[in-house]
Amino acid sequence: MKTAISSARRGRLLRKRTLVAAVQYFVLAAVLVLFFLLMLWGLSTSFKVEEDVFLTITSFFPRRWTVQNYVDVFGNPYTPILRWFFNSVKISVTYVLLYLFVTSLAAFGFSRLRFRGREVLFWICMSSMMVPGVINMIPNYFIVYRLGLIDNMFSMVLPGLSGVFGVFMLRQFMMDVPKEYDDAARIDGAGKFRIYLNIVLPLCLPALVTLALFSFQGNWNDFMWPLMVTNRPETRTLAAGLSTFIERYSHQCGRLPARGI
Fold first, then answer.
1. Residue 6 is inside which H or E element, if any?
2. Does residue 248 have a pLDDT over 70?
3. DSSP assignment, residue 152?
4. Cα(249)–Cα(241) distance, integer angstroms
């Protein structure tokens, strides 16, 4: 009797879970379809002439196909989208490589080396994380201006290297690496930098990859700072350039969707 009741209860529970999963998948599928429809709508709008965009009853596909919107956008010297894209790639990759090198060296020093005031200095650095980044924009701008780096790639790379989140993240990871590896390397004659480069750094590869993704995304999406330190259109990044792009074509909807292509 108890076995039959238990089986019936498990059956009801299984049907309930199946129903909940079906509803969840249906909602996710509906959101996915809506997302792709909106993307296709924007893509099709970029092939419409301006008169067809503002029709009272508009159609999903263009009534009159045209590529003039793309010609106007990519041929305009004031909106060099491809140049902005390559600028973003170059700046983000350079920033990630330098940031990983600087933060990993600092983390190695705070986690593996012994010197007086190490913990105090580390927590002083950590306290800077409580200061909002927007407060540093004006001082950083004056520093970059005095160094003559306005409209220069390094003006969008150097200020971000002072971020201490990467130091904290890598230090915590390096502290879990057994120090017996360091002792074995010293017996073989390895110095501190060789231990850092050949022993500790390869063991921290998962943390380095994670930090690289975070820093790349942060630098790629940065908008305010690149807009402040660039004046010429050809030196802007994609995020900063698209703001001027939208302002230039704010009343020409056929050209606006092309920014995401």
1. helix 2-45
2. no
3. S
4. 12
